[in-house]
Amino acid sequence: xxxxxxxHSFRGGTGKSNSTANIACLVAKRGYRVGVIDTDxxxxxxxxxxxxxxxxxxxxxxxxxxxxxxxxDAAYDVTPPAILAGDSKGRAAVYLIPSSLNSGDIARILxxxxxxxxxxxxxxxxxxxxxxxxLFIDTHPGVNEETLLSIAISDVLLVVLRPDQQDYLGSxxxxxxxxxxxxxxMRIIVNKAPPSLDRQLVKQKIEATFExxxxxxLPLCEEMANVASENLFVLCHPEHELTKLLHxxxxxx
Length: 253
What we know:
Order of helices and strands: EHEHHEHEHHEHEHEHEHHH
Distance between the termini: 13 Å
Shape: globular
Mean pLDDT: 92
Oligomer: single chain
Strand order of the largest sheet: 3-4-2-5-1-6-7-8
Low-confidence stretches: none
Number of helices: 12
């Protein structure tokens, strides 16, 4: 059965989109058909990580939500060549459904909103049309109607937070909502942990606080900053400790 995985953070700047793109890539590398949908409509950007040029985006999630195209018309094959080269079964693929960066499209969403039930229908349809094994939903930070939908339909919810008191407080809201919505599987990813922190102690503290398993504590590293969202970190640094930890997340999923 296809799995829907929402990756969410209560605050911006946690590295949620980077985590989504890299984990999705590693899952595809295991021979699966993977979809990624950017529902952060107010501040989209995950397409940059997959090196999808804005000039080549003819249709977006916005067009689908406004009834101007089918959801599959807004899906782009962004499978990295490195994944294709290592795919002995010829099945691995990554498809991206981006949101529009056009200021007019963003303003229209902010002004008029959209039918959230249509987003739900689109998620189910794209899984069917592309025969996906996994669909990753890169959510908008905070809590809104779209966030609640994404959480409610997820098989797995990954909550990304930094070892920061404000992140702890906000993430508690997300965790509580997920429990109320009966998400079957919820895990926490701690991102950007400074080298001075004892990662094992951070893991223990967060698990005790939230009563949710911590799937990984990811280090803050200069190499990620140097990639500068121009590519997928796991492809640029396949032997890095961070990549190995993300492999662990992919293996769990």
